[in-house]
Amino acid sequence: MPVLRSAVSVFDPDLTFLPAVAHKLDFSEHEAEVPLHVHRKGQLILALHGAVTCTAGNEIWIVPPNCGVWIPGGVPHSARATANARLNYLFVEPEAAKLPENSCTLSISSMIREMVERLARERADYIAGSHAARIARVLLDELAEMPRERFNLPISGHPKIRAIADALTAEPSNRSTLSDWAKRVAMSDRSLARLLIRETGLTFGRWRQQLHLVVALRELASGETVQNVAAGLGYESVNAFITMFKKALGRTPAQYFAQRSTPTHPA
């Protein structure tokens, strides 16, 4: 069985000062865990197949279909991909485009997706003024127009919030109440509730629901069934899970992924 290499070791985007370079990764050939690292260039992560979850700053990001996670240059980040994940990375030189200063999820049009795919077939040392350079320029102009989406889980750097997030991420079916968690982290219910709102902007119930949404999107994108995802998140019935999903995203899982499989355009 071949030894899998870390995805970080196969491509260094900071070796070039070109405005944008792209790179394709198939995680059947690489370790699922991408360790914490940082580079000068900003990075857009696109999932072609499967799913990837990124941690950047104090937030967890999911890369759903037809979206991308943008991580500005200089921000330490790590990731975990499903074994069937195939990704395209777009690395952008600082100041090369008017892109968000903070990590976020961007809606991605079919044109941008195809242009990143095309640029990934070019060498990382293409010549300024070449066809590849013109593709990169138009690509960056289009990318700057893409609207943001909300597919993130704020987790905070506070050790007690981080401990709860780590536990729920490892076991998302855990149905412990706010009171249960307060006892585990040696706080009163009221103090923990205030801390969660201060650190994440969400109540405990909304925060856990957002975590379930992030996990659900990752698992469904990797090919898992709705029934298995609902069970893995601790829902008593599939209908209860579908209700949560529809309330959050306005569509059932089947409708959401059917819509996301069609070309998208900026809002």
TrEMBL record:
Residues 162-259 form the HTH araC/xylS-type domain. CDD domains: cupin_NimR-like_N. The keyword Nucleotide-binding does not apply. Pfam families: AraC_binding (PF02311), HTH_18 (PF12833). The keyword Transcription regulation applies. It comes from the Bacteria. GO terms for molecular function: DNA-binding transcription factor activity; sequence-specific DNA binding. Keywords: DNA-binding, Repressor, Transcription, Transcription regulation. InterPro entries: AraC-bd (IPR003313), Homeodomain-like_sf (IPR009057), HTH_AraC (IPR018060), RmlC-like_jellyroll (IPR014710), RmlC_Cupin_sf (IPR011051). PANTHER family: HTH-TYPE TRANSCRIPTIONAL REGULATOR NIMR. This is AraC family transcriptional regulator. It comes from Rhodovastum atsumiense.
